[in-house]
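Quick one, T. Sequence first:
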Amino acid sequence: MIRTAKKAKKSTKVYKLAEVEGRRDYQRQINTMIIDLENRDSDYNLEQMWGCYKGILHKAAESVCGTVTTGGRKKKTHWWNKKTQEAVKKKKDAWKKYHQLGTIESYEEYKTCRIIAKITIKKEKAKEWEEFVEKMEENRKSNQKLFYANLKRLRQEENKSVSQIINKEGQILNNPTEILDRWKEYFTELLEGTENNQEASNYDGTTVSEPKAEITENDIHIDEVTSAIKSLKNGKAAGIDMIKPEMIKYIYGQNWH
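Structure tokens:
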């Protein structure tokens, strides 16, 4: 059976718009480009005007967030970098040298290179895991879709297992049972937090519900647009125009006026 490579796909890392600094930069760039567009003496129709605004959103988002290309090539392991490659190469060269010379000195040199390579790989793997944990913690709040996608990927990787994890007190857990209990505790708190945030409450405990705008006209009212935008969920797939919810939601920040 012939396997065809998946077509490479470029995607904007819009989850970075959840960060205050990135969001403000995004808003500044959009504001500048919109002012420039409005100052042009051009008679655009509705479709052309939408094309201009769509281009502004994409350009600003790519400038602030950057892009990532997925598919089309084999995934690479981050820990297999320049440091580990050089260490492994030295080990292989030392092994060849030992086979050629067969001396005690060449064997000791090979042993040293082998130990260095092993330590280097271990350090880079630990560094990659720490970065992954930090990214997961960021995605837990800003991009839950990516968060759960990473968890799913962890389960599907046959030759990789979580050997340690940090609890709420900052202590490292190595025991498999303790690790599972920590994950259970984490997801329990996450789900309880989601349920508690469904409705807002006053200080006296009474439930507050947002007033619904009563529109009697046939035209779309600004309150309807505002309500729809505020209800957009992060991490959802883009439509045919490749505009993701965050690109619209954060144009004027989380609070629309």
